[in-house]
User: Fold this.
Amino acid sequence: LGTFSFGHGVAGTIEKVTIADSTFAEGNYNQLRFYQDVEITNTVFNKEMTIDFGTANVDATFDGCTVEDGSSLLDVIYLPDIAEMGVKVEVNGEQVVVEAMIGDTAYLTLQEAFAAAQDGDEIEIYAAGTYALATSGKDITITAKVNGVEFDNIGAKNMGGADVTFNKVTF
Assistant:
């Protein structure tokens, strides 16, 4: 059996949830939503699981956790919460950064978003940094959702004859 503990703060509010050495079997629990910090270790999640966050002020740590079918733990964590709410998620000591989103789909790298973009899509960038634009060839809009988004190689050769609109970025 696993271990669950709840750290209580003022007036009985839960400040931190700790789950260790546990299994979330398919059919029993398909969603976990955290409104407080969470630390999960050596826990197996079912492939139908969704882990999301109800507020921006959450630090979530996953160490030694797996998905029962061998897929990535990131397949069960709702990545848009990391981008849109700034939830801090760490998996096995590495911070998870969502650089971009197209609609409701989150991408860990801007290059993945560029590759997936279709004509008319808006790529929203959620991670500050200096980026290079891959040859586009697509009519897209690129919008920085945070300060500090820069592009270092913008030029006619990178547009590939497409219309690319940039919003709130630095060149």
